[in-house]
Amino acid sequence: MMPASDALRTTNRSQAIAMLVLATAFWGLSFPLIKTLMLIHTRVDSTASSWFVTTYVLVPRFALGAFLLAVWQWRALLAGDIRSGEWIQGGVIGLFSTAGMLFQCDGMQYTAASTSAFLTQFYAILIPIYVAWRARRGPEYLVWISCALVLAGVAVLGRFSWSDFHMGRGEIETLIASTFFMGQILWLERPEFAGNRPARLSLAMFTTQTGIYTSLLLGLAPATGMSAALAAPWSSGPWIALTLLLTLVCTVGAYGLMNAWQPKISATEAGLVYCAEPIFGSLLALFLPALFSVWAAVEYPNETATWTLLVGGGLITTANVLIQLKPPARTANTEPHSTLN
Fold first, then answer.
1. In the predicted model, what is the mean pLDDT of residues 62-66?
2. Is the pTM of this model over 0.90?
3. What domain range is 259 assigned to?
4. What span, in angstroms and rounded, lies between the C-alpha atoms of 210 and 272?
C-alpha cells in the first residue's frame, strides 16, 4: 500500500497538473482575443502605432485585474498584510511578464495567433538548458535533439528563408518574449518564496505590470490629440466586452491558477504542461476569429490547419515532450526547484 504522505503528494501533483492545464486553456483563448482587440483598435484609430495598440491591450487587462484582486483582499490591504517577499517576487515576475507580453502582443500583429502560441513554448527548451548550466554540466543528448527539433519547427513556422537569412518580425518578437516567460516561470519556483500566498502574489504582480504598462502607454501616446487617442477604443462595445473577458478569464483566472499551483511541481514539469497552450490556441483560432469578426466588425478570418502549422507546431511540441520525458538529473547541490540567482 502506498504511504499516506506519498498518496497525498501524488494527489496534489495530479491536481496541480489539472489546474495548470485549465490555465493553458485560458491562455489559449487569449491569442484570438488579443488579435481581435488589436484589430478593433486599429479600426477605430487607424493612426495608432503598433506599439501603442500593443500597450493599450495590456493596460486595462492588468489594471482591472489588480483592482478586482484589491477589492477581494481589501481587509488584508487595509491591515498591511502583504509580505515584503510577496512584493519582491510579484514585482520581479511582473517585470519578466511585462517584457514578455509586450514582445508577444506586438509580434502577434505580424504573425498568426496559432504560430505565436507555438513559438511562445520555446521556453520549455530553455528551462532544462538553464538547469544544466546551473548544475555546471553539459546538457544531455535529448536536450540537443530537442533543440534541433525546436529550431526546425521555428524555421517552418516562420517560413525561414536561407536565401535572405530572414525571419518575420512577428516570429522574432515571439521568440524574444519566450525568454522572458522563462524567467517568470523560474522566479515562481524560488524556494525562499515558498510561503507566499497566491492571491497576494498575483496582486503584487498585476500592480507592477499596471504601473509599467500605464507609463509606456502615456509615453507612446501622440503628443497631439492624446485625449482622443486614449479614448478611441472605449467607443467600441465589443472592445470593452472582450477586454472584460480577457481580464476575468485569461488574466485573473489563468495567472491565479499558475501562481497557486505551479509551485507544487517543478519548473520542468510545468514546462511540459504549458505545451498544451498552443494546442488550445490553435483549436480556438480555427473557429473563434469568424465569430469575433461578425460581432466586432473586423476582418479576422478563421485560421486553417496549414502544413506549416501542423509540421512546425508538431516539431516544437514533440521536442518539448521529448525533453520532459527525461528531465536533467538533479545533483546533490541542486535545489528541489529551478531558481535564478
1. 95
2. no
3. 19-325
4. 29
